[in-house]
Specification:
The complex is a heterodimer. Chain A is built from 19 helices and 16 strands. Chain A is α/β, with parallel strands linked by helices. Chain A has a 5-stranded parallel beta sheet. Chain A has a 5-stranded parallel beta sheet with strand order 6-14-7-8-9. In chain A, strands 10, 11, 12 and 13 form a 4-stranded antiparallel beta sheet that branches. In chain A, helix 10 (157-168) runs parallel beside helix 19 (448-467). The N and C termini of chain A lie far apart (57 Å). By secondary structure, chain B is of the alpha/beta class. In chain B, 30% of the residues lie in helices and 30% in strands. In chain B, helix 6 runs parallel beside helix 7. Classes of the chains: A alpha/beta, B alpha/beta. Chain A binds chain B through residues 178-180, 188, 217-220, 223-225, 246-248, 250, 256-257, 259-260, 262-263, 265-266, 269-270, 274-275, 280-286, 356-357, 404-406, and chain B through 23-24, 27, 32, 37, 41-44, 68-69, 72, 84-90, 224-232, 234, 236, 241, 246, 260, 263-264, 266-268, 271-272, 275.
Chain lengths: 469, 281
């Protein structure tokens, strides 16, 4: 019986070796491994995995093509619903999405859908480890130009997904990016060892531009140009705002402005976008000797594992417990393997500095879990008198982010919610006709795939809006 | 895009560069800044805008040769070359750009410019002078050779005062001493804007507070992206954490925690020194 074989393990760099380099951790499946893993799929009549995918990729169909060795056809199935499969295969929280719904997961291990998706995308890109000999032609089909122009603000997952769909339908799409490289959080946030920039991300972005999408970097909409000037002077008929949630949060505890305290955004941007880990790039980075990372999400894991690779002895400090860690399970597992320490049920109360204002330690307090709060998570409560000191010379705050207010502040009629995100309906329509929004700019920090889903929904709404004018 | 059209050394350590950046030139207002990344391996460096020409599509920047990146940007790029990236204008414009004409007519501004800070004073003084405010400008430098923009500013204000530490030209002493002398003579200022090194802005603030003149400063904090994302530029203003890039760069000088700001500006000093030591080797 095909479903009796265990999940095919994925080959990875040895933890002791990878703790000192920025090469990708996981090597991914080769052709044989992918076909073997594909044989585990039960091809359920009512596939729950598809309902678990925010963009509803036809998972059993693409897996059937992998099983048959038709990798090009598998890529074609995925391309109908996703423009960033090599990225999603690597960074989606599969355990709570597609794989979380897999029937095989009830009694054993679910099908490795994420690894198979990554394999198909890498095969398409001609990545040598997959066994592919050369990159394959794009599977996307582009309709003839329809003469309509749409502006997309932000080249992260939401913007790229929206732009891809519109371009496929014949729209002239222009993406404006504030930074000097396209990709948004995929470029500045997620490290090289989890998502290689040149070999994976850039190739997926190249596929988007191959659809005819133009990307203009170095344009901060709200400063360099206004949404109203794009609509009134530059001839765009609709605008999609996919500007993400870029503003870092801090705790508001004493000592947070000492030298040696960084936001995870700063630390990761220096390392990923500015390539500070490479000695031939000029941007400095300071990981310190002993580093504490505060937070338990993917960004905290990324920051901690980056600091470790830069030579710091690194500890993650998180106020809830192991099972509450919001990061992908694989990231937590990888972090532990690499030697990151975890101080769980612990919260910083003050950062201590020396006479020069440089960090020397962090005063923490132990926590216990109380009653579930409104979100259903048990809220952490301080244990009185349990304060203790953690010695460190750098502290990285990975406490989440909030949406950048710049667009809302400079665009009359665009309303913001109490939490700072743009107000938009299910389809992405904002409080101003012709302006659509989606992804973290609306919801606050979430996942790559949810942002892509929102971008695609907004593309449909923009298409209806322009056709209905 | 981002081609260098003119490059002039204003003094041995300060360069003026005119670069093509049509979108920035069209949108720039006094008080704003931009970021340049000279080449793929370069840093993103925040720089003040000292002039912009929307018709020609150019912005003018003034750079002081301090570290490896500023040397690289000036010494390894010539007229005809292009920078990889010029992004802006960033930050909020000076608050006076939204003042009503009758309010502007009631103002008497005094600018205290220190060293490189003279360059961003120019578009502000020019704007105010052209919009009917009374404007005096005090420029300070160590010695005569380091004074910049004196001719430009002379035609953009009512009174221009030069100060040098060594007395080689103008008033012998620092800009704040000149301000105190003017106030003692009976000149009444409604507003002071101080732009220069942090230590100078700190002392300008102390002087203005003593003299009872509201004081605005322009924070030249360390930053990476300049759009609010990294938080490297955080500065304590009135006990609250603000980001220079999106909440500033101009703040009420009297509310700033100067010691913290100066300490934070030295955050990457060891790395900067090492980079400069190995520059050109």
């Amino acid at each position: 019986m095909a479903n009796r074989i265990p999940r095919v393990p994925v080959r990875e760099q040895d933890p002791k070796v990878r703790a000192h380099n920025f090469e990708e951790v996981s090597f991914g499946y080769n052709k044989e491994e992918a076909m073997l893993e594909a044989s585990r799929c039960l091809h359920c009549k009512n596939p729950l995995c598809v309902t678990g995918c925010p963009v509803n990729i036809n998972i059993p169909d693409f897996i059937a093509e992998v099983l048959a060795g038709n990798f090009d056809a598998a890529a074609g199935v995925i391309a109908r619903d996703s423009s960033l499969p090599a990225v999603c295969g690597r960074v989606c929280p599969q355990e709570t999405q597609c794989e979380g719904k897999c029937i095989l997961g009830v009694k054993g291990e679910p099908v490795a859908i994420g690894k198979l998706e990554r394999f198909v995308a890498d095969w398409q890109h001609g990545v040598p480890g997959t066994g592919a000999s050369a990159p394959a032609a794009s599977k996307a089909v582009v309709a003839p130009a329809n003469g309509h122009k749409v502006a997309v603000i932000g080249s992260g997952p939401a913007g790229l997904a929206c732009a891809s769909d519109l371009a496929k339908w014949g729209y002239e799409v222009h993406v404006f990016e504030a930074l000097h490289k396209a990709g948004g959080v995929l470029a500045y946030g997620i490290p090289e060892f989890r998502l290689p920039k040149d070999d994976v991300l850039q190739k997926e972005i190249d596929e988007v531009t191959a659809l005819g999408v133009k990307i203009e970097t170095d344009v901060v909409v709200g400063r360099t140009a206004l949404i109203d000037s794009l609509l009134d002077d530059e001839g765009y008929e609709a605008v999609f705002v996919g500007t993400g949630a870029g503003l870092p949060r801090f705790m508001g505890i004493p000592g947070e402005n000492l030298n040696g305290v960084f936001s995870a955004n700063e630390f990761l941007t220096r390392n990923n976008l500015m390539k500070a880990f490479r000695s031939d790039y000029r941007t400095p980075i300071h990981a310190g000797v002993k580093c504490c990372v505060v937070g338990g999400g993917n960004v905290a894991m990324d920051a901690a594992r980056t600091a470790l690779r830069l030579g710091a002895e690194t500890t993650i400090v998180y106020r809830r417990g192991e099972s509450e860690l919001p990061a992908r399970k694989e990231e937590v597992h990888h972090a532990r393997e690499e030697g990151i320490r975890f101080e769980l049920l612990t919260n910083p109360v003050e950062i201590i500095g020396d006479e020069n204002g440089c960090v020397t330690g962090m005063k923490c307090i132990r926590m216990e879990l109380g009653e579930p709060d409104a979100s259903g998570r048990r809220s952490p409560v301080e244990i009185p008198g349990s304060e203790f000191m953690v010695e460190c010379d750098t502290v990285i705050m990975a406490l989440g982010t909030s949406p950048n207010p710049l667009i809302a502040q400079t665009t009359p009629g665009l309303e913001r919610s109490k939490r700072g995100g743009l107000v938009a309906d299910e389809a992405g329509a904002t409080t101003r006709p012709g302006i659509f929004a989606g992804g973290d700019a609306v919801t606050g920090a979430a996942t790559v795939i949810l942002a892509m889903g929102a971008g695609r929904k907004a593309a449909t709404a923009i298409d209806e809006y322009i056709k209905g004018r | 895009m981002f081609q260098i059209l003119e490059k002039t050394m204003l003094c041995p350590t300060i360069a003026e560069i005119v670069v093509e950046a049509p979108r920035v030139a069209k949108a720039a207002l006094p008080g704003q800044f931009l970021i340049i990344r000279d080449e793929e391996k370069g840093e993103r460096i925040p720089l003040t805008i000292s002039d912009s020409d929307p018709a020609r599509g150019t912005v003018t920047i003034v750079i002081q040769l301090i570290g490896a990146s500023s040397h690289n940007m000036v010494e390894r790029f010539s007229v005809g070359d292009s920078y990889a990236d010029v992004v802006g204008p960033l930050g909020n414009p000076s608050d006076f750009v939204t003042m009503a004409p009758e309010e502007l007519a009631r103002q008497r501004y005094v600018f205290i410019a220190g060293g490189l800070g003279t360059a961003p004073v120019y578009p502000q003084a020019k704007w105010l002078y052209e919009h009917g405010a009374a404007v005096d400008v005090i420029i300070g430098a160590r010695t005569q050779d380091l004074l910049i923009y004196t001719d430009k500013l002379a035609s953009a204000c009512d009174n221009l005062y030069l100060c040098t530490d060594d007395g080689s030209v103008g008033f012998k002493g620092v800009g704040t001493a000149k301000l105190e002398a003017l106030v003692a003579e009976g000149v009444k200022y409604t507003r002071c804007v101080a732009i220069g090194p942090m230590i100078m802005m700190k002392f300008a603030t102390l002087t203005c507070v003593k003299l009872g003149i509201p004081v605005i400063v322009s924070m030249n904090s360390l930053m990476v992206d300049g759009t609010g994302m990294c938080g490297a530029c955080r500065v304590s203003v009135g006990g609250k954490t603000r980001f220079s890039c999106v909440d500033g760069p101009e703040f009420d000088g009297a509310l700033i925690d100067w010691d913290e700001a100066m300490r934070r500006s030295r955050q990457y000093k060891p790395e900067e020194t090492a980079a400069m030591d190995s520059y050109g080797k």
